[in-house]
């Protein structure tokens, strides 16, 4: 038995199960999780510091990358500490309100990440297809405006999610077979009819991540058409090389995101531990890889990073 809030028939606390079937090795799983979290924190903080202190990097691509890094830091910090406490100390309890708050942060910040990746694609499109107008199109005011639109889109469109779940009855169990709170995991515990709520979640997912991905594909189609019209192979390769880092970021972000999304809704025969593991990869790997990808591929960032390390060592 578990305690209910008497007025709303929801449990006072939920119990996070972790990765179903792998409870015995949670401590061992926590080691790579912890290392990835540390690398994510260090990498994104270093990236923000480097871009802030190097005026040559105050370009739209890197400023959008900084916005992405801030969202990454907030996303990992809203989930990983609780996951590690579960793995290390078997601390499974999470208050109902805290669970809803975590769910909102995960979904809204993920939506913002998708928006920032789309903004970076728009920057690549303007830089390659309209190079002479790049500085006049992507002015500081436009970049701030785009950033605010992306933030408010994620914050507003996902704000109904906690309220959609707040007033429902959870009469089945208070055990969540997951490492963190997220919409689909919670709604499966509800006794009432949830078709409308599931439909809203699906529509929001399409209008954010789905639409962003379609627009990113369209931008790269236009980029490729422009590149193929360049006169020499060297020019084509040089132009495409400016998109390599961003393409890797797209793949790292959207591949586990789509797998997790489809598995929740259609993958009823996928083993639970595989699905939960991929869901954790979606939260862990992109925030770690984004600064690494741009650090390796961008000469300015790489040089500043090594210069910073040299100063610290001296």
Automatic annotation (TrEMBL):
Residue span(s) of domain G-protein coupled receptors family 1 profile: 43-294
InterPro entries: GPCR_Rhodpsn (IPR000276), GPCR_Rhodpsn_7TM (IPR017452), Olfact_rcpt (IPR000725), OR51/52/56-like (IPR050402)
Membrane-spanning residues: 25-50, 62-84, 104-125, 137-158, 202-228, 240-262, 274-296
GO MF assignments: G protein-coupled receptor activity; olfactory receptor activity
Main location: membrane
Gene Ontology annotations for the cellular component aspect, listed alphabetically: plasma membrane
Any single Pfam family the record assigns to this protein: 7tm_4
Membrane topology: Multi-pass membrane protein
Gene3D superfamilies xrefs: Rhodopsin 7-helix transmembrane proteins (1.20.1070.10)
Swiss-Prot/TrEMBL keywords: Cell membrane, G-protein coupled receptor, Membrane, Olfaction, Receptor, Sensory transduction, Transducer, Transmembrane, Transmembrane helix
Subcellular location: Cell membrane; Membrane
Family of this protein: Belongs to the G-protein coupled receptor 1 family.
Function: Odorant receptor. Putative odorant or sperm cell receptor.
Name used for this protein in its record: Olfactory receptor
Organism: Ursus maritimus
Lineage: Eukaryota, Metazoa, Chordata, Craniata, Vertebrata
